[in-house]
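Record type: monomer structure entry
Structure origin: computed from sequence
Chain ID: A
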Amino acid sequence: MKFQYFTYFLNPISQQSLFPDQRDKNDILMGIMEKKMEYKHMKSDMVYVFHRKEWKYLHGKLGKKSSIKRTLPSDHDFVEHVDINYPYCNLLLNLDNDAETGQKIAFEYNSVVFQSPEAQIKALEKQLNTLLFSNGYAISIHPVVDQKEFWALAKKYDGKIEKLIFTYAVPNLFNLENELSEDLKQSGQKYGITNAAIEFENKAGQLIIPENDPFMKQSAEYTGKGGGEYRLKVKGMKSEISSNKNVKTKSIEDIDLSTDDKETFLEAVNTIFK
């Protein structure tokens, strides 16, 4: 199997509530994800089904409704018949609050089922928020990416970059002790924000992205860990370059998520999140 990796942030959306939910925020999320969800994404009928929870891991399956038109053989007078099919991908959550390993999502990458896993994750995020808002929380999901790719792009397009946008999830989840993390933490407490963004622009395409600059280094690290995203607008290119197209992907052989054996399942999921 092949997996892509994301980080999720679960934040309160209100400082005060008449009827505050006393449960841990991950328990609230788990309570929602232990139930079947059916929703629309674009023109597709999506279905999420809970499979199991073991220790700190939750396993579900995300599928979409499709139909296959078949023509029956001659003894059925070549009648057309439509079969309904639900191809799916495995979805795993690490619910641990540990800054290094927890609040992670591993989503099976199968382009036959979903050409854009990131788009499906964002659609699931939207559906989860329709259910989380009433509990006073919002979820924000971002891809884990290779930090080196950011600097490679900055070097490759040096002298052609018109715009750089960083989007950050709030608050700091990674226990990074730097100025950016502290600013995000304080802004979250002061303004109640769940996301923040900053934009740099030079319309002539001469935007400078110095590799030794503390702010740029901290932003590349934060977004690389799944704390947000970056977008680059390069002179002469119609589309922006987004970190969402550079999701960390890993292939893992010989794992069985359908096993009934708890230890075998945990061993498989530990390998996936390793």
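Annotation 1: Residues 147-245 form one domain.
Annotation 2: The first helix runs from residue 25 to 33.
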